[in-house]
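Final report, section 2: Outcomes. Of the targets proposed, Lin2480 protein is the one most frequently requested by collaborating groups, and we therefore present its record in full.
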Amino acid sequence: MNNIILMPILIPFLGAITLMLLPKRVIVQRVFALIFSGILVVATLGLVFYIRENGITTVNIGNWSAPFGITMVGDMLAILLTATTSIILFCVIFYSFYTIGKPREKFLYYPAILFMIVGVNGSFLTGDIFNMFVFFEVMLMASYVLLVIGGTQVQLKATIKYLLINVVGSGFFVVAIALLYSMIGTLNMADISQKITDLNGANTGMISVVAVLFLFVFGLKAGLFPLYFWLPGSYFAPPIPVLALFGGLLTKVGVYAIIRTYTLFFSSLTDFVVPLLGILAIVTIILGVIGAISYYDMKTIVIYNIMIAIGVILFSVSIMTRESMTGAVFYLIHDMIIKAALFLIVGIVMAITGYSSVKKFSGLMSVKPSLGWIFFIATLGLSGIPPLSGFIGKLLIVEGAFSAGQIVGGILILLSSLFVLMSLIKVFTRGFWGEKKGVFNLQIPYKKMLVPVVILLAISIGYGVFSNAIYPFIEQAVDPLVDPSVYIDAVIKE
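The predicted structure is given below as tokens.
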């Protein structure tokens, strides 16, 4: 039964291989991609309840017991993230049918998406630090294809920058793993945690160096200050469905990697490394706010809002208490869903108006009032207005900050919510209200494009309204983060 933990990796992998055999049959590609993503949703949601009942489940690849072999670990945090990923994947694939265009679909668009999900889910599930590097590379190689597919000049420029940045990041990742292995002598994450604890404070200087290297690598993926410089330009270039995947998933893999390594390996480094994470997170929030309120381009505004969310989550992680970790995990899942929904809404607005800047059009409410109200609800959800999920997540984070004495950080997070609301209300008032300006294309398959948006928004609203029912799952996800022995005992069965 333990092998079912591999389903989030095997299902998209088999789907990608199958679709690569049918590169030019667009309709068949669409149907199979949707079927495989639907199966993935069912499998991952089933796994959530399986882990709820049975606790952390592990698989030793090749039957080599931990810590000698490669171990895949299905704890509640990893499974919740794979389930959220699968739902976003299903919605984005459905949305792509009406937006991405057949020329792109013929160039292995759907296999590339599924291969990217293999890397994303593998990164969440691996219990081996080098294997995390391997899954990162799978994810990144697929993302290069998705970023460049279509071959426009803007995409090619963004791809070169994105490629160079990630090659550098991958090089540092290998260096960090090599340094850690030279000191600890193992790659299994549970075993690394155990052996760092056994050092009893010895060799703390080199452990801190490795911690900063990991922060550099994962911060580069997540868009943490000062490593965010590539994010606005690179994420602006791809088509909207790809942007929804990137914004909803790729930066969150970097966040997950920081959460997993810092709670397992480096939680005791409270003199320098953990406070450094908190400081960088606060600066990321401030710069994200400045970017979000400075632009009138919808894509750019939502991209800078990714940075704000990354800062909020990682600041909460840096506090290292149960309350703050609960808020971070709750808000992480919320942000994945709501960011994907917002990017898909922006795509519909662009399909109707032909522009992403609200300076180029207004009065959209007069022709598509339903779209206006859907955007408004998504804005309230992202800003953290009760009873939506953004409010619950930020409330938990602020409570965690105040209870740990981090008053300035807590107030800053509260203020950031106001600026997030301001940045998106600006889009609503200028683009949807007012006198009709611009030429609107009303021939798009509007209702079909709206289906995945409504699904994601309904999940986001339900996530907030029924948070009491979801809270036990979040608590179970947090247990290994605040008590690494829970994770270690499940992986290394003595």
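The mean pLDDT is 87.
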